[in-house]
Amino acid sequence: MTEEVKSDGKRSNAFVVSPQKRKMQKLAKNAGEALLLGIASFVAIIVLFIFYFVAVDAIPYFQLRGFTEFFTSTGWYPAGEPGEFGALAIIYGSAMVTLGSALLAVPMGIAAAVCLSDILPFSVRQYAKPVIEMLAAIPSVAFGFFALVILAPLLQSNGGPLLMWTWWVLAAPFLLLAVIVAADLLSARFAQEENRKKMALLLQSLFGILAVLVLYVVGTKLNAIEIITGTNALNVSIILSFMALPTIVSVAEDALQSVGRELREGSYALGATRAETLLKTVLPAASSGILAAVILGIMRALGETMVVWMASGNSSHIPDPWFNYLEAVRTLTATIAGDMGEADQVTGSARYHVLFAMGLLLLVISFFSNLVSERIVVRQRKILSGQ
Amino acid sequence: MKRILLLLTVLLFASVDAGAVGGGVVIDGSTTVGPIAKSFAAYFKNRYGVGVTVSESGSGNGVKSLINGTCDIAAMSRAMKSREISAAATKGVNPIAHTIALDGIAIVVHPSNPVASLTRAQIAAIYEGRITSWAGVGGPNVRIVLVQRESNSGTQGSFGELVMGKGVRITRSAETHASNGAVKNRVSSTPGAIGFLGLGFVDGSVKVLAVNGVRPSLPAIRNGSYPVSRPLYMYTNGQPAGLVKQFIDFAGTAEGMRIVGELGFIAQ
Q1: Is pTM beyond 0.80 here?
Q2: How close B47 comes to chain A (CA, Å)?
């Protein structure tokens, strides 16, 4: 191809390209396009093949045992005689750690992305972003090792104080901000012009006392918590949120960057403050990209295996009470990894196929959440371009 | 799909077999028997210059490999189940058990735990979920954290058989970990934990409980007074011959017994 271009260049003073040459060029163009198309469709076909092969081995399970037990029973005794294959508690465990990690990673990730794109000076951002992205390069087994050997004993020995300090560090600035904003908004709405300052001060001190009370009461409650086992849903949620963070930060930051200078400057020109610009202009404009970031991050947490296998405790039960993150849970991915060894077609058919049923379930979940996010992104784009 | 998988495995194992033809022995199976197999392998390497490959993937995997013809010896910390024997028969494999050592399963707790002895029935009740606090067995009022092994483990299978008894299931809230080392790590770092380990893995980081008043010791296991003990096996396909036979017979030699003893197991 390059040679062709070269020879073309040489002949460029003669405008006519010989028909033979033109044919060759067309052929090369078609061949190149076909190659790229082939590669692209190969990637798509891989996805279909994975779906197909997982489904082929998953369907025999449902033929053998039906759907009811898998989705409604919490009895998971695959090695028992007879075996029980109730995956409800395991599905619940997956949902629990995914939700937990999303609750931690999404606010942190979006806040970090906003900070990187709109607050930090460019020179700092140049260094900060690669460092955050480096989190993604740490092998998951290293995260798992950290969770099992360091975080779990730490949670057991100092879980209460640790939770209290985390609560203070996270909640104090947030509450301070909330107090100031709430006092401002309320005083602006209700008070007369001359009383506004006094009113704001009064409200601030009132809300301030309330906030300190909330901080203190929740803090002491957390401090009193004794964590019996450190390999629990909380531990895994924390680690998974670290693992989902680089994805969320990186993609969300790209989305915020792509909003562009014009919108920001337009907003400032209309007299908006930086906070107003961020909250009312930049974030809504980037919301589709941020949503994509969030879903990618959640998928990362849902699909992670090594960390949960090492550090979730792998108890196939629904915690009591159901929102108790301090109990061990078991996830779909860890079950597939842990039970694959002995589960062979030779020694137990349902036991083998049930793992594929779990794999299929994971595939279907990620497929649908991708589909939904795609939909939302498209709709968001339409709304934005329509305005 | 199965055919493709089969083809792939055959290809994969063809390469392993090629290694075996070169005079090596391939061992797969129990993580408990693993240290013995590895030490034997090191001895054979030094003494005869023969390569012995040892994989530790759990007793269940050992059976699988033996049935699929991908290993010469399946190291097992439990006897083969009838289902596995019939599965082997359908593939034309005739598994023969060779006892290479005895092993006690130590019931371990955190060093700070004041409880020193439990009966077999108490351990079963704890693992069944009927006793949930150490106060129920004469200890402090701390919730019991149950630690067990994954379903692949022969130690898990033996524990179920020897302690829980037939048809009694370990409660679903028991934590599951993937190796003797991981169980030891969890128990040594969790004050309320109870777990079980192959005797060879016990060290000072955990406290060993007496069962029915008997502490797991060499004489107690040999004379059968310690209730949670079991033989460790190596399974071969048919009567072993050549190098495989030499390897298995090694367990009965003075040198083999010395190695077994050094690893914390009890020689036959």
Answers
A1: no
A2: 33
